[in-house]
Amino acid sequence: MADTLKELPLKAVQVEALVVMKIIKHCSQTFPTTATGFLVGMDVLGTLQATNSFPFPTVEIPSTDGHHDNNAASNLAAAAPRAKTNTVYQSDMIRNLREVNIDANNVGWYTSANMGNFVNLNMIENQYYYQKDLNERTVALVHDVSRSSQGSLSLRAFRLTPSFMVAYKEGKFTTESLQKSNLRYQDILVELPLQIHNSHLLTSFLHQLPSKPLAAELPFPSNLAAITEKGPNNPGAPLYPNFDSLDLSIDPFLEKTCDLLLESIETHHTELNNYQYYQRQLGREQAKITAWQLKRKAENVSRALAKQTPLPEDEWTRLFKLPQEPNRLEVMLNSRQVEQYARQVDGFTAGVTGKMFAVRSNLLPGEMET
Description:
The protein is of the alpha/beta class and about 375 residues long. The protein is about 50% helix and about 15% strand. The chain contains 14 helices and 8 strands. It has an 8-stranded mixed sheet with strand order 7-6-5-4-2-3-1-8. The model has no long low-confidence stretch (mean pLDDT about 80).
């Protein structure tokens, strides 16, 4: 039965509402420092259910000259899921959960992000560690704190593709190896559909959530329709849709995302220039080696005519050193991050453009409604 469950591919991720609230609270409290934690739950017929979560213990970095290094703290927190001390902490926590008969299967980990900037080497190494060593059927939940602060929850589930797992295990990200494996930047991560699950008791409570009491006394209804229709006597549930979603202001999130997109494109051009420099260096060294080999062959021909011992022709390996090709993994991750930024811009502008078209007659006084 266990082998049959492993053969079923993961189709979706189901996260309990309590887990979502704990992740949001942890990520918001540590922002802008990266927050990480691990998830426990169970795998039910291809649906990975996360029923509980626990943050990893934080390590305080001593301040130097009264200044606290936020970058060092973020890097240390981002590498926390694969740290040895946290591995022991995670094992102890899972053992304690089993003693009280609670879901104690490792189903992945979570991390926080800022403006969608989560495709980096730390995330790849953490997810590779989970899928390879702890449990192959694990996911990484990414909570974007900045995007969620705009009113829409940003929580996504990712896994590494099997082809990228094989390539990362070999550790060769050269042009030749990428051409053989046909690995592209789109093949690094695969996103799974995520669903938030509420218990029936919590769903009933949300539907019956009382509204805020009015300060003034309500007027007496003049007829029966005044009681049934929405108004002062029937304000409706507080979670009903409101007019805030019709705000036409261009959010600063879009501007910041465009700035990060331009920075990623500049980084891509820098990496491209480095690779072109490597190709030029390689071409010069190969030209030198070819000239040396031709000269050595001519010397050996002369020595053969003079009945002398020929000189070794493989001595060039000691005299010349070929430049090392830069790792192409960073370029692939940066390309995947550029795609992530582009999708964010497209998703945000799509909603704003629809609102603009809906009210264009008010924005353009001379245009009449057709």
